């Protein structure tokens, strides 16, 4: 979805002219940075516009059972002093669903009811997104890793399978290596993460007085002006729909429910500042977290449910992950960046089929 659409404008300073969140590097389709930036703002859910959706649940136009939309959210858990939203349904071996950049638990609207027929399903809102608190912190991939690790430990309380889309996929991976005894498997849907260049040496230089006291403050002011303008541009509901349709090959599920689930969290007074911090701090410090390093520490089975028509993260990345990590099962899907919401029936079936292959291992671990 627009869940992990994130890039920066070419009109910002040089260190902001490259998308460094590991989502899209190596993609065969790179948009202009300005277009990408505007889409990133919409996708991040920091628009303050609101839709007219007020009903708690709307009938699904595609005929699939759908999680009822609740403006007040479902369940809340306090983590490090912050309110974290999550959904839980069903009984059985647990699954934890982790959304992408700018989305929420409601992005799993067509997956939760079906998966809950055989499993206990949790869907969590990452800190800074969805119905969780818009905390004014320095965001880092490890913040979300710690959140998921603690969620599994304190709320789920038993071995689970982690399922993530885009940024949520990378979060699932790093959480799995941080808590191997409580993760039986990981499923990725068009995951974030980039393979590092082992030949590239990091170059560091001492910050001069001119850089620290003159150039850096000016750069930050300029960033706020540019990002503020792009943020303002992206407030229009029509823009949100346009972004969603650009990453949904079949846009029939781009509806009021989906748009509302993106725009409502943005009404939080801290949403704009969270967006600024994500764009200027989190996005610019991700190259140190590579798929090479993470996959080399992973030990559980891995499933890739990959939308091959994704305009940003094509099938090449899935093939490379499978080649790098032998314990991988790859399912190619004719869908865009968010196959779980675009073609939920196929994703649900493929995930449930794969989960049955984990049953013997899960049984042994939980006896």
UniProtKB/TrEMBL annotation:
Residue ranges of coiled coil: none
SUPFAM superfamilies listed in its UniProt record: alpha/beta-Hydrolases
Pfam families, alphabetized: Abhydrolase_6 (PF12697)
Domain AB hydrolase-1: residue ranges: 95-349
A single cellular component GO annotation: chloroplast
UniProt-recorded name of the protein: AB hydrolase-1 domain-containing protein
Species, as recorded: Vigna angularis var. angularis
Gene that this sequence comes from: Vigan.01G332700
